[in-house]
Design a protein that fits this description.
alpha+beta; NE0471 N-terminal domain-like; 2 helices
Length: 78
């Protein structure tokens, strides 16, 4: 099992700055998801910036979420 999200901050370039419970910090690019289903709503800044940690992963106010393993494995160190 990969580390879980402790903190997340949305950046203006549609990336997320994520701190995991092992102390690692990674940036995750959300742009590839923005034309898919519920993720298209994240193009609205007020929804994108509503992201918060939720049960080891993240969740937006519209109910969109991403798997913590995806965030960890596809994120890159910054």
């Amino acid at each position: 099992m990969n580390p879980r999200v402790e903190e997340v901050v949305a950046d203006q370039d549609y990336t997320l700055l994520i701190t995991f419970n092992n102390g690692e910090k990674k940036r995750f690019d959300v742009k590839p998801y923005l034309d898919t289903g519920i993720f298209s709503e994240l193009k609205e800044p007020e929804i994108f910036y509503s992201v918060k940690p939720f049960m080891g992963s993240i969740e937006w106010s519209n109910g969109a979420d991403l798997c913590p393993d995806t965030l960890y494995l596809d994120g890159y160190k910054y």
